[in-house]
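[Discussion] Sanity-checking designs against the backbone

I'm trying to build intuition for which residues belong where. Below is a structure token string of 363 positions. I'd appreciate it if someone posts a full sequence so I can compare it with mine line by line.
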């Protein structure tokens, strides 16, 4: 018989459960920065695994020394990134400081008259409209200064995050076996083997995925660099590196990279004739970037991504599309690793399910 006391106790337990869940979620929200550090450190650990295994197995390094060497290499990579990025900002700031807005407006008027003449639009009198608009007064070049200041502030605050991530990564790399052994002791005995097998497969597949991703970015970087060098772009190495880095974001990243390359190219050519120098060079570089993206999207990305995580290219595309619609850019970035983890866990715990068998037949 259900009494009022039972009902009240059930309500209290439900409220307590909701309160605990709310407190846990709030706590996770408060320490979200730490969680991000842990995730980044885990990704770095997965990327570092092949190098660490090479140092330990082939060169007979101790786990501690292998971890130290790996972190030194990561530190050099971060330092190189900063040394590449800061000069680009300074270079573009100098270009903006030397910008002759009167000359820019004159060039704009010349192009506008050419368009009028070509399309027989003289009767619309765009010239008077543009003069009345006063291009010089409308362009707010303070935006670029604010952007540069924001980037510099970001770089200034970047040090603490890098130090924290590297500290966590060091112990993830050095004490992997210890963590696995402690986890084995905490796992329930009936599912211990399944969980350990899942973790091992996930670790293997994600390591292959992140190594494959680095290979893909390297290929894209080289192709971008070739395009920029062919058309004589200034700071070609830096622009190619930044645009290749944006390819981490599936499908959208290459578009952002192309726009960024076009803007940086135009800024680097400020002071030259717009119609004969700036516009053609920018168009050629954009076309070159589109060709690189076509090669990447149809050849390197499907091969590397599908082979590294043992998934069909169409499967990967649909997962990225659904994740992007549901969770935005962050969802697109983490879609493949999370999907791979889910597939491994499903196969380990539900191997006889028909749907799971179809989804995981290549794992």
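Best answer:
Here's mine. Compare freely.
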């Amino acid at each position: 018989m259900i009494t009022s006391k039972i009902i009240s106790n059930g309500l209290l337990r439900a409220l307590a459960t909701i309160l605990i869940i709310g407190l846990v979620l709030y706590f996770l929200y408060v320490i979200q920065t730490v969680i991000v550090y842990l995730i980044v450190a885990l990704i770095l650990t997965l990327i570092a695994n092949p190098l660490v295994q090479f140092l330990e197995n082939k060169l007979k390094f101790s786990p501690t020394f292998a971890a130290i060497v790996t972190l030194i290499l990561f530190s050099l990579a971060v330092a190189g990134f900063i040394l590449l990025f800061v000069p680009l900002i300074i270079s573009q700031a100098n270009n903006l400081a030397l910008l002759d807005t009167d000359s820019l407006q004159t060039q704009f008027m010349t192009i506008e008259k050419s368009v009028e003449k070509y399309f027989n639009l003289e009767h619309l009198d765009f010239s008077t409209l543009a003069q009345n608009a006063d291009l010089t007064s409308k362009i707010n070049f303070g935006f670029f200064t604010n952007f540069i200041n924001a980037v510099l502030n970001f770089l200034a605050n970047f040090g603490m995050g890098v130090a924290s991530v590297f500290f966590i990564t060091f112990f993830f790399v050095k004490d992997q076996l210890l963590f696995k052994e402690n986890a084995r002791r905490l796992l329930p005995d009936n599912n211990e083997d399944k969980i350990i097998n899942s973790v091992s497969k996930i670790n293997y597949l994600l390591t292959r995925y992140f190594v494959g991703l680095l290979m893909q970015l390297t290929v894209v970087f080289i192709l971008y660099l070739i395009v920029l060098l062919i058309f004589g772009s200034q700071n070609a190495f830096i622009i190619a590196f930044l645009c290749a880095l944006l390819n981490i974001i599936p499908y959208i990243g290459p578009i952002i990279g192309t726009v960024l390359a076009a803007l940086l190219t135009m800024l680097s050519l400020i002071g030259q004739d717009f119609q004969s120098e700036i516009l053609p060079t920018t168009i050629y570089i954009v076309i070159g970037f589109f060709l690189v993206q076509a090669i990447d999207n149809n050849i390197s990305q499907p091969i590397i991504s599908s082979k590294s995580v043992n998934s069909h290219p169409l499967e990967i595309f649909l997962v990225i599309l659904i994740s992007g619609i549901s969770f935005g850019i962050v969802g697109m970035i983490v879609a493949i690793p999370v999907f791979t983890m889910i597939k491994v866990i499903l196969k380990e715990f539900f191997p006889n399910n028909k749907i799971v068998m179809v989804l995981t037949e290549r794992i």
